[in-house]
Write a structure and sequence with these properties.
This protein has one domain. It starts with a helix and ends with a helix. It is built from 8 helices and 4 strands, in the order ααααβββααβαα. Helix 1 runs antiparallel to helix 3. About 30% of the residues are buried. The protein is mainly α. Strand 2 and strand 3 form a beta hairpin. The radius of gyration is 18 Å and the shape is globular. Helices cover about 75% and strands about 5% of the residues.
Length: about 230
């Protein structure tokens, strides 16, 4: 087993361990509050694993990391202080230290979601391109870019739709009147599309299988909690 595969396997093991233990702890033990309170640690560790497993740690990757963190955090600051973007909501204290009423950890959460959805969509796209090439079919580059951004943004929307009710129940944030407005999802798609276009420009078609696996793990994690919590 080469070093790259070993790192990917270790990262996958840690991600599975954290999320399976989290599910068990939240749903079946008396230590539910402890698991919830340690969510920021989980986010930091998982983000670290994404950075470690990324194959090309070049200028483009770190520019995207900064862009996703800054844009996501700025959107949250505007949204939470005006109600104009996502709707009216407030953050609890679970996610840690805040600036302008938004936890710092939210910045890397934006990076994590956009990065993973981008990698999932890119992996599927590479598979389809290979199949089309085998049939001798050419693909328009502009059409390919538009398809990538739309598909990945829809994937980000799906993740947010699954996650939102769970996050509210766990106390990460609360919506006014406990209702998630449609504007939240519309804004999610628009901001995600913008960041995914940047991802596409700076990513240089690199692949990270761990990011694909992580997206599936987290989606199932929140789906189980949404069903049984």
């Amino acid at each position: 087993m080469n070093r790259k595969r070993l790192v990917q396997n270790i990262a996958l093991f840690i991600a599975l361990l954290f999320h399976v233990c989290g599910l068990i702890g939240i749903l079946f033990t008396s230590y539910r509050d402890w698991f919830i309170q340690n969510t920021p640690i989980n986010l930091l560790v998982i983000t670290g694993l994404l950075i470690i497993t990324h194959p090309q740690k070049n200028k483009g990757f770190f520019l995207f990391f900064i862009a996703a963190c800054v844009a996501g955090f700025a959107a949250e600051v505007i949204g939470i202080n005006t109600g104009l973007l996502f709707g009216h909501y407030t953050y609890g204290n679970i996610l840690g230290t805040k600036l302008f009423d938004v936890p710092f950890i939210i910045a890397i959460n934006w990076f994590m979601i956009i990065y993973c959805t981008g990698m999932v969509t890119q992996s599927y796209e590479n598979y389809m391109i290979k199949k089309l090439d085998e049939r001798g079919m050419a693909i328009n580059k502009r059409m390919l870019l538009a398809s990538f951004v739309i598909d990945a943004a829809c994937l980000a929307f799906l993740f947010d739709w699954v996650m939102e009710p769970v996050a509210s129940k766990l106390g990460f944030w609360q919506w006014e009147h406990n209702e998630i407005p449609n504007s939240n999802y519309v804004t999610w798609v628009l901001i995600s599309a913008l960041l995914l276009a940047i991802f596409r420009k700076l990513n240089n078609n690199s692949r990270n299988l761990f990011a694909v696996n992580l997206f599936i793990i987290q989606l199932l994690f929140f789906l189980v909690l949404r069903t049984f919590l």
